[in-house]
Amino acid sequence: MKRVLIWVLSLWSIVGIGWSRSEDGLQELKAKDRLLSFLEKDAVSPGANSLMIPLTLIQGAASKGAVCLDRTPPGYHLDRGFGSGSNSWLIQLEGGGWCNTVRSCVFRKTTRRGSSKFMEKRLNFTGILSNKAEENPDFYNWNRVKLRYCDGASFAGEGQNEANQLYFRGQRIWSAAMEELMAKGMQNAEQALLSGCSAGGLASILHCDEFKDLFPITTKVKCLSDAGVFLDATNVAGGHTLRDMYRGVVTLQGVQKNLPNTCTSQMDPTSCFFPQNLIANIQTPLFLLNAAYDAWQVQESLIPSSADPHGFWRDCKMDHSHCNSSQMLFLQDFRNQMLSVINGFSMSNQNGLFINSCFAHCQSERQDTWYANDSPRIGNKAIAASVGDWFFDRTATKAIDCPYPCDNTCHNLIFK
């Protein structure tokens, strides 16, 4: 049955969703934070039998300069594997957007996305992190880790801003976390999967080959990027909202030195923060899980309020069923761009795809979209089954949906 998820926005949140430079920038930043929270699974409340895993801070990280934006220690949640999964590891990199200006990074310091002071002390493990076979058939008994995101540059920054006491140490956080987890048994892994959602999905692409290099050649290592294919696309006014934002992230947080030189030797650093310019050179098997009409990209990249000052696109942006034919044509073109970007990538036998024609974002961590009776499907196969078939080489998985509105299994996001 078709599932629709609705988020009720206050009027102020609707007005403040764009990347405008208004006097009320703080409200705008808060609105963006609420949008991220909704899109990245917070809309699903923990159930009575939920698996709540405690936060572990990396105590030795500060001595290595591996700190959050506010200089607090980074952290992770680990649920130990059991049985046949005792020597298998799944690392899930948390998402949560980026900060591209001093102002937005200073705000981020006051949230769980920039400081471990504000992180939940216990986190609900669902979807790909679940410990129940009926919810997560292939990875339920693995060692499952959620690495918290508190740097604002997809675990890739290196630098600091003394005047505003900002520490851009994403790359060091990545390294410190991997070092700690290797010491806790990951060095003995027989198989390992690096996963991530949204900004964490971009991070799983950026760090995929690094992750592979941690292990001996005998370890089966692959990577999964969920909602991480952010496109260098044109917005409804002809501008490049996401490129402009990424330029700020890369410049402010010193990301350039940590980008693959296979890309930076050919293109500018901002271009090398876009997955479309990275995936062709990744040597490790990679699976791309993405909604063809990614809900965050529709909201923040394609139709930001700054590009739609008269609100012509507002109803369409909030509910795709309200898009007129020309607006839908624009969104179909976005889907076509995504398919074009992944065309070469899909030629490799080692890579996998699940591109469904849904208005969604982050489908691996939510139980309802990862593996449930009514979860999204392509060819009658759920996301979890598709990822599992690909990881264990049971069958090649190159699933691409027909265009909207053909898929009635989507859990589409509607903003009211």
TrEMBL record:
<comment type="similarity">
    <text>Belongs to the pectinacetylesterase family.</text>
</comment>
<keyword id="KW-0964">Secreted</keyword>
<comment type="function">
    <text>Hydrolyzes acetyl esters in homogalacturonan regions of pectin. In type I primary cell wall, galacturonic acid residues of pectin can be acetylated at the O-2 and O-3 positions. Decreasing the degree of acetylation of pectin gels in vitro alters their physical properties.</text>
</comment>
<keyword id="KW-0732">Signal</keyword>
<keyword id="KW-0134">Cell wall</keyword>
<dbReference type="InterPro" id="IPR004963">
    <property type="entry name" value="PAE/NOTUM"/>
</dbReference>
<feature type="signal peptide">
    <location>
        <begin position="1"/>
        <end position="20"/>
    </location>
</feature>
<protein>
    <recommendedName>
        <fullName>Pectin acetylesterase</fullName>
        <ecNumber>3.1.1.-</ecNumber>
    </recommendedName>
</protein>
<dbReference type="Pfam" id="PF03283">
    <property type="entry name" value="PAE"/>
</dbReference>
<keyword id="KW-0378">Hydrolase</keyword>
<keyword id="KW-0961">Cell wall biogenesis/degradation</keyword>
<dbReference type="InterPro" id="IPR029058">
    <property type="entry name" value="AB_hydrolase_fold"/>
</dbReference>
